[in-house]
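Fold these two proteins, one after the other.
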Amino acid sequence: MGSWLEGGPSGEQGGRGARLGLPAQGPGAAAGLGRRAAALVVDWTVCLLMSATFFPATREGSLLERADSLVTLVIFAAENLLLVGLLGFTLGHRVLGLRVRTAGVGPEGPVADDGRAPGLMRGLVRTLLLCGVIPAVVWDADGRGLHDRAAGTAIVRR
């Protein structure tokens, strides 16, 4: 018997996302690390450019050197909270064909995906933990970071 960090029973019953009722491949399958990381790079770059353009910390240097790191983080948090909470995806998710869905396991099995955005409360929990970095880089056997697990969400392919 293993812990949820090691994979446990869900890893033995069909791989990543199987316990959540996600398909193994195709639309609705758990998103891979490469796509999720690329989406994060897109989101952070856009937020960095917005920070440097509208709230520069200095007037010298290249555009990216002008960005204020705290302002960039605030813009990133606002983007994640509003877009994930209300639409179910960030700009990076959209570009890379991903979406955030409600996901979890209840007493009667996997929570069904109704296709709607997770909502602002799930978005808030997810965003606060995502900005804390550590929860986002620790996964469970279903391929979810701790931020997604705590919020009851999962990133899936569209």
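Now the second one:
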Amino acid sequence: MAQLDTAETGARDAGGGRRRVRDIRDWSELKRRLTDPGPWRRGLIPAVLTVLLGLVMLFHARIPNRVGSLGSLTETFLPWLGLLLVPLAAAAVLRRSASATAALLLPVFVWFNLFGGLLTDKSSPAHDLTVLSHNVAEENLDHDRTSRALTDSGADIIALQEITRANRADYERGLAATYPYHQVMGTVGIWSKLPLSGTKPVDIELGWTRALRTTVATADGPLAVYTAHLPSVRVKVNAGFTAQRRDRSAHALGEAIKAEPLDRVLLLGDLNGAMNDRALANITSQLRSAQGAAGDGFGFSFPAGFPMARIDQIMVRGLEPTSSWVLPQTGSDHRPVAAAMAF
């Protein structure tokens, strides 16, 4: 009897043990499901941030400029928002989040739609005219080095900004042998291998001359050439992106170009704004960017040591850009930008 009781007790204990094991397993499965909501519910924060990034890039033109010119600031550095995709993608992988991974499709698509065309080389060797624009910088004291870089570029037309009483004579002397024709007004000037005529200042509502217009006599007919140095912008903690003066001057420059009677127009200058910046709309709506049409890459020109934005522009109407590039540093805080054109 004792042995039977023991056997029966053992059987009962074994059954209870199996039930406890099943209970533990059921509890562990429930706990796992509660603590691990699955790939689509994991990583919701990175997913939301990724969608917000895509919406900022998609609707950048809707970001208001009323407070600190936030819209213009965003548009100036819009290409760099793509770098935020790297940590967001890493977060999606580390969290094994299907939702965060799927959310990446929006900003990736928008970024490539905006800038993917700049990543391919669209240049061709054919050209009739080569032009260059450079803000030589008032603080740049190496005028001879800068002049050599400009003449070595082979450009037919050169536009300079930030010409001062201290550097004007040096640039006139350094460029004279290669460029027999030149005109300087205020702080801007044009040097050319081709004859110039009809040069006049352009009023961009600053009270002094920082823009001019001239006619270049080419073998294919007259070409209206403008150069301008729009007011600088600053990023201030208490004021945001201070660009109001630049915006007014950009509008005035656009009005001058709108009144231009010649069909062929070339604008060379430091516009202190990127092509995406809505403040330049009165200009960009009339002219094409040489870098956008025929460049290879973003063509960033400022600051020279580590360029982060293209604020030095070459823009055209009635000409076909065939290539566009950025030259090495010269001693200025801007890099020269150049382009080749076909008539």
